[in-house]
Structures are given as structure tokens and as C-alpha cells.
Amino acid sequence: MEFLGQDRREGLGRRAHSRFNLILLMLVSVLLLLSSLYSAQASVFKKAREGVMDAASPVLMLFAGPINAVNNMAGSIGDYFNVMEQNRALRAENAELRQWMAEALELRETVASFEALEGYRAPPGAQPITAFVIGEANDAFARSMIVNAGRSSNIEVGQAVVDNHGLVGRIVEAGGSASRVLLLTDIQSRVPVYVEGADVEGILVGNTRSMPAISFTARAEEAETAPGQRVLTSGAGGALPRGLPVGIVSGERKGEIIVNLYANYSRTRMVRVINYAFPEIDAGGESASAESEAEASAEAPAEG
Questions:
Q1: In whole angstroms, what is the distance from residue 133 CA to residue 268 CA?
Q2: What b-and-e string marks burial along 225-236, b requiring 16 or more CB atoms within 10 Å of the CB?
Q3: What is the pLDDT of residues 112-161, one digit of tens each?
Q4: Strands, DSSP E only, in 90-233?
Q5: For 51, which DSSP code?
Q6: What is the distance between the terminal CA atoms of the chain, rounded to a whole angstrom?
């Protein structure tokens, strides 16, 4: 009985083991079948994909040109707008640089004018007063400038005004902190002048033109003027100092001498007012001494 039970158990064990092996083999078979199917499917898909690519290659090459052209055009348009933006920024920067350049040039011109004015030698006793042009008053007949110096700077009516080239005009109105300068081209301007080297004196009369004329001349009959001769203030009448440069002779017209002025009013930015006082002659002292001498001579015979 024991042998029969043992044989039975061994038979059951062999059958269970065989079943396990069968199941294992079935699982391996399924896995191999699936892998083969997947490989076959992948191969089919790969071949189909390669076929589609081969078939679409001519079409893609056909459309590649227009597509690239469109892409290039889109890129060019983008680049164009980028260039426009950069150009706009550069224009703004250029405008700012031009503004800075204009200010630098104006500052350099002011410094150059100041340096030139520093080299000016005023007549003896003169006290030049530096002033800046802050405005102009020009109409059909009037020609004048406004400077930022007045009575507080010891400026008075009648004083000469010069720039780094020559005479500009004279003070006709003096306020507390500003004055008006009557230019040589004003129709009311009258300045006594003489022509250097020609023995010619006269009055420089403004005519609202860029070149005034010398009229009412007093000259020797043989004296003649030539273009290029200098015209200077004569100091006649004690209005202006003698020897201030005015301009050069340009020619003659209807008996008048045309003068090309040294001063360039369009570029005049800084001027000097010549605070010059003519020395006074003490006539009272001379008369007093004459009276004392007369009295002494009258008393001398009485004592004798």
C-alpha cells in the first residue's frame, strides 16, 4: 500500500511538472510569435515609410523652391523691419549728436570770439565791457541788437560796440541790465570815419544795406580812394574813439564811397562795449590864470 501511494504521488508530481513545462513552452512560443509579428510589422511599416518618402521626394523637391523663396522673403521682410527700426534709432541718435555738435560749435565759436576779443587793444583809458547778443530788432529800416549789459555794468548811451572784427555800432538805449545797439547799417546811423592812406574824412551813413556809404566827405582834390583801403573811426565830435576798424573801401557809387564792413552781424554773438571818456579841457583854469595875470599887470604901474 505504501508503494502504491508513493507511486501515485510520484505520478502526480511528474504530471504537474510536465504541465508547468508545457505552460512555459506555450508562453515562450507566444513571446516568439509576438516578437516575430512585431518584427514583421516594423519591417512592413519601414518599407511603407521608405516607399512614401521615395514617392514624395519629387513632390517635396518641387515645392522646396517656392517654400524656400517664401521663407527667404519672410526673412527679408523681417530683416527689412529690423533695419528700419535700427535706422530710426540711428536717426534719433544722429539728431541728438547733431544737437550736441551744434552746441559744441557754438561754444567753440564763443570761445574763439572771446579769445579774439582778449587780443583786442582798446584805446588808452578805455575799459571794455564784455556782453552777449541776446536779441535783434530788425525791420524795413531799423537795424539794432540787444545785449545783456546795461547801466549796472557802467554802460552809457553813445559808447562804441565792437566785436572781434571791428566796429558793430553804438549804444543808443541803456537799461538796467540790457542795452540796444544801433548797427552801422541802420538808416539813422552816423559815424565819423576816415579812409586810411587817402586823406579822406566823412560820415558813414547807414542805408539799411549790408554796405553803408561815406558821404559829406572832406578830402584833398588829388586824393583818391582804392578798393581795399581801410576805413577807421576818426573821433570827430568826440562821439567815438579814433582808430576803431570799420571796414574796407569797396568802390564808389554816385560820388559816395561804399564800405564793406568788417563786422558780420549774422555771426556776432559776443561784443565789447568801449567805455571810453574823452579827456576834458579845463578852460576855466586857463581863464582864471589869464585874469590873474591881467590883474597883476594892472597893479604893477600903480605901485610904481
A1: 7
A2: beeebbbbbbbb
A3: 777 777 666 665 666 788 999 998 876 666 789 999 999 999 999 999 99
A4: 127-138, 143-147, 160-162, 167-174, 179-183, 190-195, 200-205, 213-219, 230-233
A5: H
A6: 210
Is there a contact between 234 and 210 (Cβ–Cβ < 8 Å)?
no
Distance (Å, rounded) from C-alpha 88 to C-alpha 84?
A: 6
CA distances from 265 to 117, 163, 184 (A): 16, 10, 10
The contacts of residue 239 (CB under 8 Å, 6+ apart) are 158, 170, 191, 192
Name every residue whose Cβ is closer than 8 Å to that of residue 165 and which is 6 or more positions away in sequence. Answer: 245, 262, 263, 264
Does the global pTM surpass 0.85? no
Q: Which domains does the chain have, with CATH numbers?
A: 1-119 (no CATH), 126-278 (2.40.10.340)
Residue 293: all three cell numbers together = 595875470
Residue 271: name the closest of 196, 183, 176 by CA. Answer: 183
Q: What is the pLDDT of residue 299?
A: 44
What's phi and psi for 249, nearest 5 deg?
-70, 130
Check: CB of residue 162 under 8 Å from CB of residue 271. yes
Q: Check if the beta carbon of residue 201 is closer than 8 Å to that of residue 192.
A: yes
Handedness of CA 101, 107, 108, 109 (dihedral sign): positive
